Structure formats: C-alpha cells, structure tokens
Amino acid sequence: MGLPEKFASIRKGLLEFLILKIIAADTVYAADILERLGDTEFATQEGTLYPLLSKMRRDGLLDYEWQESDAGPPRKYYELTTKGKSQLAELDGYWKQINTTVTKLGR
Amino acid sequence: MQKVISINLNGNAYQLDESGYDRLREYLESAERALATNPDRAEIMADLEQAIAEKCQRFLSPHKSVVSTTEVEQIIKEMGPIDMGLGENADASGTTADGKQATHTDAPPKRLYRNPDGAMIAGVCNGLASYFAIDVALVRIGFVLLAALSKGAGVLIYVAMMFIVPEAHTGEERAAGRGAPFNANEVIDRAKKQYAEGTRHWRRQWRQQQRQWRRAGWAPGMTTLYDAAPWAVAITPLFALIQVALFLTMAAMLISLVNTGAILAWHLPAEVPVWAGALMLLVGYQIVVAPLRAVRHWSWNLRGPAQPLFAFWNAVIWLCGMAVAFWIASNHIPEIREFVQRLPGLFRQFAEAMRGVVSEPR
Questions:
Q1: Is residue A45 one of the residues assigned to a domain?
Q2: For B271-299, what is each residue's pLDDT tens digit?
Q3: Residue A48: which domain range?
Q4: Contacts for B275 with CB less than 8 Å, ≥ 6 apart
Q5: What is this model's ipTM?
Q6: Beta strand pairing status for A28-29 and B4-9?
Q7: Do B78 and A76 make contact, defined as CB atoms within 8 angstroms?
Q8: To the nearest whole angstrom, how far is the Cα of A7 from the nearest Cα of chain B?
C-alpha cells in the first residue's frame, strides 16, 4: 500500500473543509475549484465535485448565483452562507487542534 | 468512415463520431443511475453536461468541428466516476459509477406480509404468494380447496391470518414480503404493471383511499376532512358514539351467545358450534365498524403531525377504560361473570375443533 492510499480516506474527509476554504477566499465557479485543487494532493474530478457541491448546498453551507461569462454560457459562482462561514470557522479550529495533537504525540 | 452524431449538452450543440457518442452516452447513463436517489439529480446532470461541453470546446477549432472518440474518452477520464461516497450515505445509491448494479450481498430478511395491492379480500393469499414466489391464483385455489375439504376450517385460518399477519404499507415492506431488495427500478416496474392492469380499478381506489386515511397524520398537504367538508367535523364524535353503540350491541350478542347458545332470541343452527358463532360475530363486527374507523382516522388528521402519538395514547386510554369497565362488570353483573367463566371452555372447544381439522384430512 502506497503512501497516498494510506491517507485516502483522510483526504476524502478533508475535501469538504478545503472547498469551504477555497470558496471563502474567492467567488469561484466549479472549474476554478478543480484547478486550485488540481496541483495538490487533493486533485479532484467533476464526478466527485458536483455531487459534493450539491450536497453542501442542500446542507445550507453554500449558495450560488449565475454570472455571465465572456466564454460560453453563464456559470454558477459559489459563495458561503452564514452557516457555511461558521462551519468553516469550527472546522478550522478543529483542524488546528488535530494538528497540535499530531505534533505533540510521540516523537 | 465514421458517422457523425450531433448532440445537445445542456443547450450546446456538439458533433461526435459514433463510437465517441456511444461512450459518452454510456457515461451519462451511468451517472444518471448513480444519482438515481439524489434529490438534485437533474441539476448535477446539467452541471456535468456543462463541464463536458466546456471540455469539448478545448478540442475544437475553426478547422476541427468533430470531437473524436479518443478525445471523448479523455474527457470521460478527466470527469471521473460519480462519487457519492462524500457526505451522502455511500450505500444510498445501489449503483457504482461504471454502471454495474452493486450486488447486495445481504438481501433484506424475508417477512410475511398481507399485500393489499390487487387483493381479493385482505391480501392474505397475495402475501403468501409473494412470500413463496408462486402465483396468487394457485394460493387462492389452495385456500378454497382447503376450506372445502376441511368443512370450512380453511376460512378460519384465513380469518386468523387476516388479524395476525401485518399489512404491507410501504414499498419496502412489500419488497420484504418477497425477500427482494427495494429499489427505484422496482417501484417503476410495479407502477407500470399497475397501470397496465386496468381491472379492479374501483377496488384499488377504495384501498388507496383507506391507506391514505390511515396515513393521514403524517402526509402533509393531504386534504383533511375539514377541507373536504367542514360540517362533517361536527359529526365525527357522532361516529365514535355509533361505534361505541355497535360495540355494546356486539358485546351483548356475544355474551348471550356464549351463555345461552343464542344471539338475543335467535338460536344458532344445531350443527354450528358456539365458538364458530362467536368468531363470525367478531368478524362481522370488524366489517361493520371498518368504515366508521376510517372516518375517525381521517378526522385525526386535523390534529396535525402529532397523530401517531395521539393514536397511541388514544389506544392506551381506550384499553385501560375497557379493562376497568370489564373488571367492574364482571364483579357486579352475573351474566358477564358467567361469560368469563365460560370462556376457557369455549377456547378448549375451539382448540379441539382445530386439532380435528389438522388430523382429519388423512
């Protein structure tokens, strides 16, 4: 089992957190999100992202609005709702806590 | 030479060669299957098509108007399989991204239910047929033969099952009655079958209505009795009164039957045992009271979504009241004391008759 597979489920679990972070920083559309994730360990495909985005929207974490684009049809630009922002803050705190634990434990 | 097929992806026209078209259609169909249970399916499908359209754009230029098969394959690879594993319960969709039905290794447990869909009486035969996966007609013929050969005892078995075996209300329960997994395709198949089977329409309608009444409490948006007929609400307590009166009549008849072998002044024919008369009386009472009960269920809907709890307490209070009334009555009214004393004997007679039926056919 290679290194990436060992952490496959952790990466999966972090994806929602990272998407919240990306959307919080910028108004983006789906392809932007994929692009930002693309160069990292979290590279994701449309087939995964779209169902996740629609689920997060159903959970009330984010919303989108249609915006005209200069190339092609209008695009959905995502933004965080109030609930999404507070969720992000909580996740961020928890993530830092986990990081401290990982650093402190053992050697 | 390849044929070129024009497609419409979320409002954009593209040309693909034939095998590329087949690959893309396969991908979209498997995506649709994977999203079958997703409430945002249409929206996600539109998003996917849009993303594919944008990727197609990349391969096209003023001198190239057709997306080739290898390009389609690359696009599909970039898109990746539909992954519902994130956040959604992973097992909510029974299909995997490559379109194969995920095999349910643990089939749901098989349970015996009465199936009211297409039933003649109470769905006992129908439920048995589902359970053993045989034709309903065979089960019905079996029951009729049994009833004829056992001098009517088969009817009693039917009646007993009518009360003992629960009725399947939901699709899951009906599926469990066959021991089959419940999925959307099956519901669609069943709906088609029902549509094709035009006969017995009115009976089904009546059953659906009854079922609706039973569910009334947690089916928001359903017409309440109040919407249908405001004046009717005023008379619903009347139905309860009628039901109580019927119950008392039935109880009086039962007591007189058990104590004296005669319903009020009418004597049972000599060949009919008392226990059979008592059973017929109980069944008859159920039949008479069913519409009244339906109306009262319907009126519960007025009380909103708390109905299941209300029904529960209603039943508890009713049972307690009955127990107290019965206790007082059996201590103070000699006829009722006699009735209680005669009951064990009645049950013994019934048990003996049943034993006779079981050993007789040899």
A1: yes
A2: 677 777 788 888 888 888 777 777 666 65
A3: 10-104
A4: B346, B347, B349, B350, B353
A5: 0.82
A6: unpaired
A7: no
A8: 15
